[in-house]
Each structure stands twice: as C-alpha cells, then as structure tokens.
Design goal:
Distance between the termini: 42 Å
Low-confidence stretches: none
Radius of gyration: 21 Å
Largest sheet: 7 strands, parallel
Strand content: 15-25%
Strand order of the largest sheet: 8-7-6-11-9-12-10
Helix content: 25-40%
Amino acid sequence: MPNIIEITDLSCPELDLFARLTQAQLRNRLEPEKGIFIAESPKVIGTALDAGYVPVALLMERRQLAGQAQSILARCGEIPVYTGDRELLAQLTGYALTRGVLCAMRRPTLPTVEALCTGARRVAVLENIVDSTNVGAIFRSAAALGMDGVLLTPSCCDPLCRRAVRVSMGTVFQIPWTYLGEDPAHWPHPGLERLRELGFCTAAMALGERTISIADPRLARMEKLAIVLGTEGDGLAPATVAGCDYAVKIPMSHGVDSLNVAAASAVAFWQLRAGEMER
C-alpha cells in the first residue's frame, strides 16, 4: 500500500528532493550509488519502472491519487507519496507538474563503453551538447531510428536531468548510454582512438571543405559507424572533425546552412541506420 503523506509544511526536509537540491546534488557524482534523478508524468515514470529503475518517493497532485497515477502507485510499493493541490505543488517546485506527478528514482550504474559497444553497429556520440531539450530529443530519435546506444562526452548535459527525461518521453531509459571518458580532457583524444579500437568508423556531422554527403554509399556500407554530433551554435570542435574518418554534411536548400542539432540527429540516424528497419 502506498504511504500517502499530505503536505502541510513546504520546508519539510523530505521534500528537498523535489524542490531544493541542485542538479549536482541530486546527481551526487562523488557517490553515484546514492544519486537521484526526477522523472515526470505517469507515462515516463512507467517507462522507467518497466526498465527496472527503482523509485524512492513520489510527489503528486491530490487528484492524481485516483486518476492517471493509480497504476504507478500500484507498482511503487510503500514509498512515501507526498501530495497536495496543484497550486501548492507549483509553489513548492517552482513550476506546474506535467500530468501532476514527479517521481524521485535511483540513478543506474552506467555500462562501460566496451559493454555498450559490444554487438552495436550504430552509436551516437554527443560532444558537449548542453541544452537539455536537445539532449532529450536526440535520445528519442536515437531510440526510434536505429541507434544501438548513445555515448556522451563528459561536458554534455546530464540525460537524466528532469527536462531531458521528459523531452525524451522516457526513451533515455530504453536505449543504452554512458560517458565516453571521465574528464573533458579525454575527448576528442583518446576518445576517438577508443572508438576505433572497438571497430567503429567515425563520422563527424559538420560543415567544411572535405565533407561528403550523408547520402554517400560508403557510409551506409560501414559495418560499425559512430555518428558524432556537436554542441549548439559552434558545432563540433575542429580537432574532433580532423580526428574523425569522415566529415559528413546534410545537403541544404534555400540558402539554409544547417539544422538544429536535434533535427540533424534525426536525419542522420535515419539515413545512416544499419540495414532495414520495420516500416
């Protein structure tokens, strides 16, 4: 049975998870096994539970106790469920809850790069992408369009920050991901060399004189391909482009020079997928 707790004091320390801890404090990088992230909306929370993620506490509008969150409550055992009306919860968190439900969950132990890449034919590599909306959208495209995993450089936005999780529609729980190195100095070298040792050809999505079209048949024939995408605005670092096997562009029309990185990722993942997907 759920442990329903009516919120009477917004300063209650048990509510810090949802209101007062910074992203860094939730992530707890010094002790990752104690780290927490926040999932938002019954659909996303359900996807996390399906993937084996462990809930710690719930925060939900009172009306959701007998509404959309009933199935979530039934799956979460006796964890605390803090509740109040919509206005009170918005006052606590500083924003209106999507679908009226938040769930604090344990952060997972991430796979090694080698484990993630075992058997993988296509991986996405995200270099220093800092916008949580873009990271969430890229994860959704990667999961939907044939990527086997996602690798992030250490300076990327956390894929388990609340907004990235929500924008990904929970696909961040469905596709394997991990960090390619533990320090920003590990990218692009020796990160690129590590990918090559694992058998991957590297394709930098970038503009420049030596670029080839994304439709070049050589790319589709690659047995193992890592598709490298760069940060908003500046794109990939010159050293990254120079270190990749190919620089690849998406042909544009009407004088447009490039797409937003999330939109470009969807085009790249579909065009460069391995083999035929179900249609």
